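Moderator note: this is an archived Q&A kept for reference. The question asked for a predicted structure of one protein chain; the sequence and the answer are reproduced below.
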Amino acid sequence: MLDWGISRRGLIGGGVGLLAAGAAGAQGAGGAVVETTEGRYRGRLENGVQVFRGMRYGADTSGDGRFMPPRPAGKFAGVRDAFEFGDQAPQPRTILTVPGPISEDCLRVNVWTPETGGTRRRPVMLWFHGGGFEAGTGSSGLYDGTNMAKRGDVVVVTINHRLNVFGFCDLSDLLGPEFVQSGNVGYLDLVAAMGWVRANIAQFGGDPGNVTIYGQSGGGRKVSVCFAGAEADGLFHKGIVQSGSHLRVHTPEQARALTDALLRKLEIAPAEARRLQAVPQDLLGAKQREVIAQAGYRFEPVIDGVSFKADPWLPNAPKHTAKVPLMLGTTQTELSNQLGRDPSIFAMDEAALKTRLANTIPPEAVDEAVRVFKASTPSGSTAEIYFKIASWRAYITNATVMAEQRHALNGAANPTWVYQVTWRSPVQGGRRFSEHTIDLPFMFDNVARAPHLTGPESAETKLMTDAMADAWLAFARNGDPNHSGIPRWPTYDAATRPVMLFDAPPKLANDPFREERLLMGRFPAVRGGS
């Protein structure tokens, strides 16, 4: 269990083409020095915002810290420069990483604030990065908090934490009580980060009593499990789940099967499982990738009897966070991001479409699905129909279930808002429609960083930014996303099912995809995702 000097209750994916957001230029004049629980850090003044990068919220997790709950970072004397992002969690070099070190010394936190010190207490927006539970980093360029800090007078925080086998390898059956939470230490890192925010964010001008946790793709999945996890209770006050409604976690049997396969790959006897703490980082990462390729599922949070005693959202939403405001949603064609890399999809006839769909939904439902989705797809594009159906199967149905579960728990007093991004990107001639990650440039007010997603800045991208960034800011400030730039957005209920459609301009519609919802709701919810 964690001990951060507070009681447990008191303490208590991935996109394409994310750009590196390295420390900009030389040190800006006027970089503030802030006292934290570990020591004093000096930031940079950049574009009118104080920026602190690479601070530690926990100790190095290598060696005997591997697979163990995070430990507090050590104290230091003097003043340390917080100019560069810290180490990224162990993972392969991909589009989800940025230049810089990768190591197990990855419990790092970054802060953007309009002003340090003083008496003002600003809303805090703590971002969990995408990449599933497997990859990614809080230092990606699309997550740069400068514009949001300035736009909304808020404090933006991003973090790195343990991922994949380093964060979610369940050794409890093999090594006993000391490792009882080994399958969830990546989640406990999130808890530790929230504890660090509570203890320190006032020094950065933030309000420790007004913290919103939010994330997209894998980051949304992390928010999902934090709503259910015992240790996270009370550490945050609002949540936003973007394209990542995570309803179930691994059973102990699923987690143990991955661990057993990993031990076989490394030729380690189960009785000697503690030797995993000494396996070189790169070798351990390589072997876990072989394991998940064969198993067909990944190292993720697990029902361990401590943090999670059951699935987080099924059969019921978590009761202890029932009144915590939640905003959740998806894009309309999430999987045009991943699946759209195959050019043959754009040349499909209807027969080829049905053949592909038979691997996505039950074959006996394919004809009906094509009929339903063709009726709501004016373009008649087989690729768009395919992306829509696949996205409902992998993302949108789970988001719908999450909203329904919250309404079942709360009734009329349901503090839940649902959206869908329906704006179509002009990139690649519009072939990617409303893809996974298209929300990031708008709600971070970072369109200038993302022409690969949105195309050039335009009147439409400004409308989208004004609608989405201001909704995220209003929600962080007041627990309600309504603002003057969008239609009135009611909370979700199972009778009218209001959904904000983020487009240029935004629209509010009641149960806008009824036939699609009813059809896809007949299939079981998907367990995991990106």
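Archived answer notes: The longest strand covers residues 206-216.
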